[in-house]
Amino acid sequence: MSNLTYLEAIREAIQEVMQKDENIFLIGEDIGLYGGSFGLTSGLFAEFGAERVRDTPISESVIIGTAVGSAITGMRPILEIMFSDFTGCGMDQIMNQAAKIRYMFGGKAKVPMVLRTATGGGAGFGPHHSQSLEAIFAHIPGLKVVMPSCPYDAKGLFISAVYDNNPVIFLEHKVLYKSKKYAQEVPKGIYTIPLGKGEIKRPGKDISIVATSYMVQKSLEAAEILQKDKQIDCEIIDLRTIKPLDIDIVLESVKKTGKLICVEEACSFGGFMGEVVAQVMEKGFDYLDAPAIRIASSNNPVPYSHILEEEMIPSVDKIKDRILSVLSKN
Amino acid sequence: MKENLLIKGKTTDLKEYKIADRFKDLEKSKKIEILKKMYQIRYFENEVEHFILKGEIYGTCHLYIGEEANAVGAISAIKHNDWIVSHHRGHGHCIAKDSDLNFMMSELIGKGNGYCKGKGGSMHIADMDKYNLGANGIVGGGMGIAVGAALTNKLKKNDGVVICFIGDASTNNGIFHESVNIASIWNLPLIYFCENNQYGMSTPIISSTNIEKISDRKASYGIVGLTIDGNNVVEVYNVVSHFAELCRKGKGPILIESLTYRWKGHSKHDSQIYRTKDEVERWKEYDPILRYKNHLIEENTVTAGEVLEIEKKVIEEIKNAADFAEKSAYPELKELETDVYAD
Ligand SMILES: Cc1ncc(C[n+]2csc(CCOP(=O)(O)OP(=O)(O)O)c2C)c(N)n1
Ligand SMILES: [Mg+2]
């Protein structure tokens, strides 16, 4: 056990799987000696060398393509796209190649690769470095999409992603990366958290809050304040993986509380939580005693100025206020 | 590590192209303007660095110090209504294209009166009124846009030329090939001005590219391409003037590789473990501003005293821009969701 940040937990996961399995290699921009734009791969180049920690030119399309091609021929690549926004430059290789190969080949190929990338706003990086694109990935059949909220989960989910035989988009929140506030005790050695299983991060009886990634942390904070100030008991569900989606954990919770709020950082329009709400309507309408609602970002690019960025992205206060307004209407 | 070309003294392919010394005949005021712009960039970026240290630049930003001759030389050689397309290291291009220093500085610290109302920040400053199509957060993102702007010129039959500034490392992104290829078959009035500052983030261009000169890529497209000394503003001016004229006559596109060096780290956070202090110092001997200043003094265009006056004025201007930005208000919250769609 050691107290690790989110970034350190992912690095440890990479290091441990690479020590075990010669077929695993890293590929990406400035990930070698430099250790990656956020320093996540720092030290791995020294340990595993240039063959297995492969620096590339600025060529997103072929970085992803190389991962796809090597994955279907016997390797287990882990690739880094510095910011999730840059996946745009390699989107064909993701959505038309990685995602569809197994199906198109009639089930005769496997694509065991992990695409790691930094997601989300809140760090002042402006419109091209701050988007939350998970809904786009989750929409494409063939991809799995993981969004860890804390170091312990990040490591366990990452190891599962590496050993999964499908292309996994692993979305790492850049605000969580180095945050000491969210550092956690993380066990040494290999352990896995299954993809497609959510977790109740805080049990409660009054209302169900479903969240992903950084929004889980913000929701937990809002829940603590509400408990202290208003004796409101929120149940916080961390989906951890959005595809596959653990809708059962949501339904079980809503059955108990009768109320559902979904919190996501992406723009609300076409956001992933629309899917969660739709499935709850289809499978758990009778459990609800209030309309399910979503808390999400406004529908605009992520602005640079921190004043506007803070206004856009759901904050602890905003989450708390919406919970109160849902409860007060009932 | 292979030595870079400029330090080895084998920079220029100029002789092949019979490029006239048009700089020589420029009016004194224009020559001084070029010097002033280079100083503006240098001192503007110094001030930005202060803001970084004070924690007022959010996210990240990329400084242009050491590369001033590229933007100023190239942009001085085109008309005010010729479009430019910039990239993430774009402050210098804006200044060379006559952007307002106050509104630039405001944008960088996220103020509401900044060029993009605080919505874009360092990597997105654009100024349509000055024919500046903006910086870009996506490496290579401008190379598509530049083709479009050059095509507009062609379709509207004006004689405009477009300069697309790109970094050395961006030439390894796929869009470079698509962009230069299509520009070549359409003979677009487009100059790809590749600022080869030797690195893309931490990666030396010589380790991410298997040819010695980026300009050699001209062969793939059947276009003119050459490598020049990007720390010599006179040379940059002469070369771009020459090829801009050819572009206007339907003989574009052109690929110019301009050898230069960034003195500062890649962005806000950069340990710079990938290069030595000695290398940085050797490049500083090619300080583009010092070289130009000496050139002007030697050819008796200005005296050392006049240069000092210019420098002092610029320092004052930059100080004012910083004050202006600091005193300006943050954007109003109602601006958050405006400007997403046009009416
Ligand atoms: C598509 C894309 N990939 C990666 C990045 C991250 N990045 C920003 S600048 C940069 C290096 C660019 O090098 P170069 O084109 O030589 O320009 P320079 O920074 O040297 O001026 C990288 C990798 C990005 N912004 N966009
Ligand atoms: Mg470069």
Summarize the structure in words.
- The complex is a heterodimer of chains A (330) and B (343).
- Chain A has 330 residues and is of the alpha/beta class.
- Chain A has 2 domains: 185 residues, Rossmann fold, CATH 3.40.50.970; 130 residues, Rossmann fold.
- Chain A is 39% helix and 20% strand.
- In chain A, helix 3 packs parallel to helix 4 and helix 8 crosses helix 12.
- The model of chain A has no long low-confidence stretch (mean pLDDT 97).
- Chain B is an alpha/beta fold.
- Chain B has one domain: 3-Layer(aba) Sandwich (Rossmann fold).
- A 5-stranded parallel β-sheet of chain B has the order 1-2-3-7-6, with helices on both faces.
- Chain B is globular.
- Chain B starts with 27 loop residues before the first helix and ends in a 16-residue tail after the last helix.
- The interface between A and B is large, with 36 and 46 residues.
- Bound molecules: thiamine diphosphate and magnesium ion.
- Thiamine diphosphate (TPP) sits at the interface of chains B and A.
